[in-house]
Amino acid sequence: MDTTGTLLMPPAGSTIAGEVDAIFNLILYVSIFFFILIVGLAAFFVFKYRRRGEPGLTSGVDHNIKLELLWTIVPSIIVVMFFVVGFRLFLKMNIVPANAIEIKVTAQRWMWTFDYPDGANSVNTMVVPVNQPVKALLSSTDVIHSFFVPDFRIKMDVLPNRYTVAWFEAVRIGEYNLFCAEYCGKGHSEMLGKIKVVSEDDYKEWLEESFKVDESMPLEEYGESLYRSRACNTCHTTDGSGSVGPTFKGIYGHQVILSDLKTVTVDENYIRESILDPRAKVVAGFQPVMPTYQGRLRDREIDALIAYLKSLKE
Ligand SMILES: [Cu+2]
Fold it and tell me: Which residues are within 8 A (CB) of 193 and not within 5 positions of it... i.e. 6 or more apart?
């Protein structure tokens, strides 16, 4: 397997990537060949038949059947060939192997959430086993995003109110970039994820671990890890500086002014409500862009986040 990559693309990292590259290169080189041929001939004839002195007699030749047949049939065969190889790969990229592991991928401004078959989940890092087909079942909670993994040569729109599917089989252990390839607002360029390809055993172990850690960690510490793993940090800081959302520094016990100019004191219930139903009370001066975590955080996780916010004193 070629692992050097090209000027345009990183090394092929999935079973279909090599074929995508082959077809891309085929079309690219055939196009370059004809570009040079046609533009070269056009330039040559412009020069050869340029006007010289007084106009003479015009040539009586108006067409050439053989030449016209040649330049109609040859390109037709070439484009039909492109269609056939392209369509075969298109089918391959769209028909998900029956033994694929299904992982639910949820896009929202501006993060990715992954839900695995047996209840584990992760944010912004998708963990998958190597040499195993993986079906990503995609949907969005807000606007259109796009699931793009250059190493795997897959890109698929992620829509609200509709499911789309992308599948891949990674061929090498490693970490690959996941981009959102559809402009989705202010944080679009930071909507970065990773696809972590691990061995079959490591994958199983990871699934088990992901349940264990949170039961044993102290709440405050667990909350801090959730603050990062649940991507709260993409919109909230803990050092007092402003971001998309208000800073968490010293927030607990503070009075906040809401957009309807009422005042509330930040306590456990307010934090809980802010996480589960962010639009119920919107802080004055901020856009109501926080996604709801309803159904996405367990009670212990919410408790942990509350404990963590409490610990961020001024
Ligand atoms: Cu996006």
Answer: 111, 112, 124, 125, 126, 177, 178, 179
Q: From ligand 1's centre to the CA of 191, what distance in Å? A: 6
Integer Cα distance of 31 and 265 in angstroms: 66
Domain boundaries, the chain: 7-40+64-95, 101-212, 218-311
- Give the pLDDT confidence of 274-293 residue by residue, as tens digits: 999 999 999 999 999 898 88
Tell which residue, 258, 236, 257, 119, has the closest CA to residue 187.
236
Residue 118 pLDDT more than 70? yes
Residue 246: Cβ within 10 Å count? 19
Interstrand relation of 133-140 and 101-108 (parallel, antiparallel or unpaired): parallel
Indicate if the pLDDT at residue 2 is higher than 60.
Answer: no
Q: What's the gap in Å between 139 CA and the centre of ligand 1?
A: 11
Amino acid at residue number 140? S
Distance CA 195, CA 73 (A): 45
Is domain 218-311 in CATH 1.10.760.10, yes or no? Answer: yes
Query: Who surrounds ion ligand 1 at CB < 5 A?
Result: 145, 180, 184, 191
Burial of 270 (0-12, 13-18, 19+ CB in 10 A): middle
Q: How far is the CA of 38 from the centre of ligand 1 (A)?
A: 41
Whether cis (ω within 30° of 0) applies to the bond prior to 71 is no
Burial pattern 177-193, b for ≥16 Cβ within 10 A else e, equals ebbbbbebeebbeebeb
Same fold, 101-212 and 218-311: no
At 82-114, the pLDDT tens digits run 999 999 999 999 999 999 999 999 998 888 989
CATH 2.60.40.420 fits 101-212, yes or no: yes
Write the pLDDT tens digit of every residue in 214-248.
667 788 888 998 898 888 988 899 998 888 899 99
Is 156 a residue whose pLDDT tops 70?
A: yes
